[in-house]
Task: structure prediction
Amino acid sequence: MKKITLTIDHKKIEVPEGSTVLDAARAAEVYIPTLCDDPLLEPFGACRLCIVEIDGYRGLPTACSTPAADGMQVRTSSAMIETNRKTSMNLLLSDHPLDCQHCVANMRCDLQYVAAYVGVRGDNPYQGEKRSYELDDSNAFYNRDLDMCILCGKCVRACDEIQGRQAISFGYRGFSTKITAPFDLPIWESNCESCGRCVDMCPTGALFDKSQLKHGLPTGETKTTCPYCGVGCGLIVETKNGEIIGVRGDRENSVNEGHTCVKGRYGWEYVQHPDRVKKPLIRKYLLEGKKKSEIDKSSSDWEWAETSWDTALDITASNLAQIRDSHGADSIGFLTSAKCLNEENYLMNKLARQVIGTNNIDHCARL
Amino acid sequence: MTNAMDDIAENAEAFFIIGSNTTSQHPVFGTKLRRAIQQRGTPLIVADPRRIDISDIATIHLQHKGGTDTALINGLSYLILQNGHEDKEFIAKRTEDFEEYRAVIQDYPPEKVSEITGVPVEMLKEAAEIMGTHKPMAVMWAMGITQHIKGVRNVMALAGLQMLLGNMGVQGGGTNPLRGQNNVQGACDLGGLPNNFPGYQKVFNPDVQKKFADAWGRGTAPKVGKTVTELVPEVLEGNTHAIYVLGEDPIMSDPDTKHIRANFEACDFVVLQELFESETAPYADVLLPGSSFAEKTGTFTNTERRVQMVRQAIAPIGDSRPDWHIISDLAKRIIALTPELLSLNAPYSGWDYDSTSAIMDEIAALTPQYSGISHERLENGERLQWPVKGYDHPGTPILHVGEFAHGKGKFKPIEHVPPTESPDDEYPYIMSTGRVLYHWHGGQMTRRVEGIMKVYGESLVEVNPDDAANIGLNGGENRIRLTSRHGTIESKALITERVPPGMVYANFHFPEASANELTHASLDPVAKIPEYKVTAVKVEKV
Result:
C-alpha cells in the first residue's frame, strides 16, 4: 500500500494512503480531542472538536474527515483553534446535565475528559432550553438516557457499520433531533440484538449497562477469552473487591476487535451465582462405608454431605481404582469438557489413558 | 476451519452457509459476514430448512427439506459441472478419484434434486451459477450438517464441492465447520476423543502407542474407546460401571433423555466435576466443585484453530478449585494406590504441575500441531493457529495451501440417504433441534443470568402459523404437547414463519421442556453423532 508523509506539529509521520489527518495524528501520538470519531467507524464530522489548521486550507477543517496528503503541514493548536473548540464544547454542554458525580459515566466519560482538556471555565455563555426525555430501560441489559446524548452518532454507526443491524437512527429535526428506534418506540421493540457495541462506544452516560448502576469504577481488569462459542472473542473482565462487575470486548484482540454478542458481554452473572457448588459434595452412603447396591436412594443415604477435598478425592480415587481392578479399565468412561481449558482436557486424556488405562474418553463435540 | 474468520470475511467472493445459524450461534463471526454482505456486496447462499436471521439478507435461500443435504449438494455439483465451472487444473493437479465422483453426481439432475429437496429448479440453477462464477467461495457449516445419520457423508459432499470449485488452500475459501463450544476444538485436539491421543495421533498406531507409553510410563490398549453416545447406554448392558463427567450435562445434551437417565441411575459410580448441581447431579455419587473461565489461567482453541489465553480474573468461588488442580490431585491419589502400574522414570509420568503453562509445555512436547505453542509466546501477543510446528514457526492460518495435509484430495462419491425417521400419520411433523441466540447448550450458564431470563425465560417451540391454525392454537397461552416415539414434552409455542409448514424447532435450554426428551439415538455409523435434526413428532394443543 502506498505511503504518504505529512507533518503534524513539527512531527513527521508516514501513514498508508487513505488515512485521515486524525489517523495520522494518532499514529504520531499527537492528541486531538474528538467525541464522534472511532478508528473502527467511518469519519462523521459531527462534534467539530477535532479542528486543525492545515497550510493552504481555508478555515478550520476537521481532522477526522480530512484525508491526509503528502507534504501536508498540520497544526493541532492555536488561539483560533482553542477559541472555536471552547465554543463547540460550551454549545455541547449547554444542553447537557452537569451533575457528573451522580452520573453512571463519571470518570469514564469522554465528554468529561475532553471538556477538561479543552478547559471550559466559568459560566457557560450559552444558556437555553434543555431536552428532557424519559429514560428508556426497556432493554434487559442496558439503559438509554437521552438527556445525556450529544448526538455524536457513534451508536447509530456502530449498529450499522459493525453489527450490521441498523436498529437505531437519527430521528426528528433540529433541536428535537434524537436517536430513535423505529417509530420512536422503546429500544426493546426494535431488532436490537443487545450486542452492547453502542454502549461500548457511547462517549457519555447516555448508554450504559444496567450492571453499572450497581457498581462504581472497576479496580481491576483482566484480558481473557470468552467462555461461550467457538469464535473465541477477546474479553476484558472488570473486577472490584474480588468480584466481576462487568465485561467488555477487547479491542486489541483481532478476532473481535472489541465486539461481542449478548452472551459474551452480558452473560457472566452465572460465575458468581449463589447456586455455585462451593464445597465438595458426596453421598452420605459413601461416608458411612455402605454399598450403593444396598441403599435406598429415597433415604438419607443418598443425601449430599459437604466434605473436605481430601475425603472427596480419596473416596473418588479408591472407587475408580476398585472398579478398574474388578471390571477392567474399559468399564470406566470419561466425558471431558469442551468448556474447560486445553490443559485440563489434556489432563483428562492423561487420566483416562495413563492412570486408568482406557481410551473411553469423549466430550460433547457430537451434541 | 481450514481458513481464518477474518480471511473469509475479507477475501471470499461468495459465502455458502449450510446448516449453521451463524448470526445466532457464532454471533461475532456472523456480524463479520453480515458486514461483508452489506458493505462489500458479497453474495450469500443459505441452505437451511428454516428461515434463519442471516437468510433474510441472503442472495438466495435454498429452503431444502431436513435431511436432504447430500442430494442438494450433489445437485449443485451437477449444475456446476454442466456449466463447465469446475476448476479443471485444481482437479487434475491436487485431487484423485474425480471420475468416480462425477459418475455419482450424474445421478443428481436438478429435476430429481428438486423433488427430493423441495427446492425449485430455478433456485438450484441460480445458486450453482453464483458458485461457479464467484471464486473463491467459503463454505460454512455447523451441526445442521453433522447431526444426521449421514453427517460424515454430508461433510464429504461439501469437501467435494469445494474441491470441484478449486476453493481449497486459498484465501477466502475452504471448508469451515464452525465449532460450537468455546473449546470444543481444543478438547478434540488434546485427546478428548476415543480414537485419538493428543494431536489426532491414532490409538491403534503402534508407533504412537510406543511414543505415549515411553512418555507417560504406561501403555494403553491399542483399541478405540467408546464415544459418549456408546459408553453411557452401555451401563445397562453391563459394560460401563463408572462415568466421570467434567463440565458437561449429559441429561440435557444427550439424545433420548429417558434412556440416558436410566443408564446414569444404574451406574455403579458417577463422578461429576461441575459449577452447579446440574441436571446430571441427581445421579452423581460425588460432586467436585470446579471453577469457571474467570477463575483460572490457561488456553482455549477457537474454531479457526487459534490458541488464546484465558486469564484468572477472580479467586475460585468458595472452596472450588481450578479443574486442572482437581484432576492432577486425583490422578496422584489413584497412582498412589497402585504405583506399580507406572514407570516413574518416564519423562512425563508425573503429575506435579505448578501451572497450566507447565502442562502446555508437556502438550507441546507430545502434540505435533501444538509443538510451537507456549504461554510465553501467547503472552507476547503472537497470533498462533495450529499447526505450529516449532517455537520459531509462525502457525498456519490457512490449511492445505499448495498440497493437502494427506497428499491428494480424495473425491468421495456420496449418495443421498433419507433420514431414519420420516413423518407419518401418527407423527406428522419433523422436529429439528438447536439453540437460540440468548441461551447456551443445556442452559446451566445462561439460565443463571437475570437479563437473559427476562428476554428468554422459558422454552419456546417454533411452529408455523398454518400448522398452529391446524393444531388449534389461537393466541392465549399457546401451550403444546410434543410427542415422539421416545418421549413427550410440553412447551409454549412461538408461532413464526421462520419454520416451514410441517416442521417444528425446539431447543434444549430448559430442563422442563428439553428437546432431547424426544430425540432418538440413531447415530452416524462413523462419527457416532446423533440425528438431532430429524425426529418425527406429533404436536397437540394442551
Remarks:
- Residues 323-337 of chain B form the longest helix (15 residues).
- Chain B touches chain A through 148 residues (CB under 8 Å).
- The mean pLDDT of chain B is 94.
- The longest strand of chain B covers residues 488-495.
